[in-house]
Specification:
- With 495 residues, the protein is α/β, with parallel strands linked by helices.
- It has a single domain, classed as Amidase signature (AS) domain (Amidase signature (AS) enzymes).
- The chain is 39% helix and 12% strand.
- An eleven-stranded mixed β-sheet has the order 1-3-2-4-6-5-10-11-9-7-8, with helices on both faces.
Amino acid sequence: MLQIDNLTIHEIHDKLQRDEFSATALVKDSLERIEKLDPKIRAFITITEDEALDEARRVDSKIAKKIELKTLEGIPYSAKDVFCTKGIRTTAGSKILENFVPPYDATVIKRMKEAGAILVGKVNCDPFGFGSSTENSGFFTTLNPYDLKRVPGGSSGGSAAAVACGMGLFSIAEDTGGSIRQPSSFCNVSGIKVTYGRVSRFGSIAYGSSLDTVGHIGRSVEDIALILEETAGVDTNDATTVPVDVSSYTERMKESIGSIQIGIPKEYFPKGGIDKEVEATVREAAKTFDEMGCHIEEISLPHTEYAIAAYYLTAISEVSANLSRYDGIRFGYRTKEAKDLKGLYEKTRAEGFEDEVKRRIMLGTYALSAGYYDAYYKKAMQVRTILKREFEEAFKRVDVILAPVAPTPAFKVGEHLNDPLAMWLEDAFTVTLNPTGCPGLAIPAGFSKSGLPIGMQIIGPQFSEDLLFRLGYHFQNATDYHEQRPEIVKQISSS
């Protein structure tokens, strides 16, 4: 196997360009890792071996001709299975789309193709993004590479686990309420939840359309900054993308972070509501920033306690509308037992949707129904506005906010499976962000005594990704947590 576990994408690009190894060898390295590790981790729903090797050979022909490669050219990656891929099945982690093969690429996949990155497979997730552990997937549960008895997080658990194991050097993922940040924290990788409208959602299977964001998971801040340079920007196919210039993130992240004001929200450290090791780790990270010249101060976000209710009411209401398109007629699964049109709808959805999907559709439909709209959905939208204003006020006082990603390290498989409320509470520190549209960067911050990864998130004003990358980059230069690989990877790397 190639010795690339702690190399950045830039470093691997340089080795490709100097012909120290071929793109084919690089792609085969990822495929070999998938072959050896995925039977234990179970991250991949679909592996695109033939297509990936064909693309690698194309890149090798350019190397042989001494043609300059784009930075991502020849770099293997995975994509969460919510992104449409032309000619390659796209399931959204649900049985209702088990055999769906899209006729077009999502914009983010198209931009990866244009950059020359090579897709090695589509990875597992909770169906449509509905979950925090991948246990709701219609296919199988992905496991945490740091402890196979624990979850990798969700809903982008397959993406985080794949990157942690080197099964692809990065992953394209999606964050509606923490689906990038929480699994990044659980699997010791870096993940960016972007500003709403920063990256096109065209071709991304919808969860909550006013909350969904397309982001990236990588082994380092430098890697995901590089990827975002390629994917960010306006897309005529997505009217919610915003015409704000895309920074040279990889250049700006090297600028000094001295004198940056960092706020620590006291509501994110509730007594009895956060694991002691998680709190200690994040506070230790704040000390590291303080030693690098940043100013640390405590702030308050008093409406945080209402964020989960407001987020879930908003999200599930949008779910009830978005998932109405799965009717057994236009695409996806179709029952064979229906006697009439009404029966076709009912049987198709009953057989094709997973329990968590049904739960969210029912709750969302109820929240939007006559007599309850004002009491639930409308009130949730009002709280959403309050949360947004609260963050805006906080950013007048501090430049960024530092907080834990999750209240605990990765929990055990099955621990919350029969308690939906307990599962939703795992999102307590992430769902506050999506209603505001602000970006958040999750990065490794340390480990528990039992060796489980602990992450932190750096939150900034809208379109402040460059600032988040600067702070994350300098933290990773000062620490080595992000370079620690799971034991399961170390074993195969030395074999």
